[in-house]
Design brief:
mainly alpha, 2 domains, 267 residues, 12 helices
């Protein structure tokens, strides 16, 4: 059955469930294939990259995910004195698999969004389809912007501050590889989702869940709660990372209020 036929045909509950299972199966297959690609293909696509495998010296083979993780370590831990160690035998393979799956999900996000949209589109009016497209685009753009902002500004500065405290306490700069990558993955995900909060605020104002006037009236309390929340989620003990994470949110919050006044239902 084509996509157009699925949209034109009114389906029963079980048919909807069957279609959902088909689309979920497609998403899983795409993520699985991309995960395999990240885990297996070489970091540089040339004939010499396969030489270690052909010669049987597979210990020197560098798959794509290993090259990406090396780049992350180089970008976020620029000091040569800092070293990552594995405190458990299973940590490297765990990071290797987690990073491959995470990269596969990130790369396949447009396809995942497409499958979700095609599943819900038959039940939407034209103006609702337009709104969903705008929401998905805004959410995706702000999430990517947040990840980039976190990668190039917040996380490097956070690690530099944490390393500084290790130095002044006389500790050797040896850090667990699992702690480093898990903190990096979590920090980037939190920054990305943090940047998307204004999208949900606009959504809430559009459907009358909360009014722009209420958000404006309680702005000072929201900002105080914002600083408390960012102080909790950022590992940096100084207020630097907290401020760097809060300032973009304040800007987006003010913009969301302006947009919310336009889209909110009129009394």
């Amino acid at each position: 059955m084509s996509e157009e036929e699925l949209q034109d045909k009114e389906m029963s509950f079980w048919e909807h469930l069957a279609e959902l299972s088909i689309r979920l199966r497609r998403i899983i297959i795409v993520v699985f294939v991309l995960t395999f690609i990240f885990m297996m293909i070489p970091s540089t696509l040339d004939i010499s990259s396969f030489q270690p495998l052909l010669s049987g010296n597979w210990m020197e083979y560098r798959p794509l995910v290993a090259g990406i993780l090396d780049q992350v370590r180089s970008d976020l831990l620029p000091t040569n004195a800092t070293r990552l160690i594995s405190l458990q035998f299973g940590n490297p393979i765990t990071i290797y698999i987690e990073a491959s799956i995470l990269l596969a999900i990130i790369v396949s996000l447009p396809y995942i969004a497409y499958e979700i949209y095609m599943f819900i589109a038959p039940g939407l009016y034209p103006h609702e389809k337009k709104f969903i497209k705008t929401f998905v685009f805004s959410f995706s753009f702000l999430f990517v912007l947040g990840v980039v902002y976190g990668y190039y500004l917040i996380m490097p500065l956070t690690f530099q501050i944490l390393i500084y405290f290790a130095v002044i306490l006389g500790s050797e700069q040896l850090f667990d590889i699992a702690d480093f990558y898990h903190l990096t993955f979590l920090g980037l995900a939190l920054t990305g989702f943090f940047f998307t909060i204004p999208v949900f605020l606009v959504l809430a104002m559009k459907f009358g869940v909360i009014s722009p006037e209420t958000l404006i009236k309680n702005k000072r309390y929201i900002y105080v709660g914002l600083f408390v929340l960012t102080a909790i989620v950022t590992p940096d003990p100084t207020p630097v990372s907290m401020i760097l994470l809060s300032l973009p949110f304040i800007v987006f919050y003010e913009v969301s209020l302006v947009i919310g006044k336009r889209v909110a239902p009129k009394d």
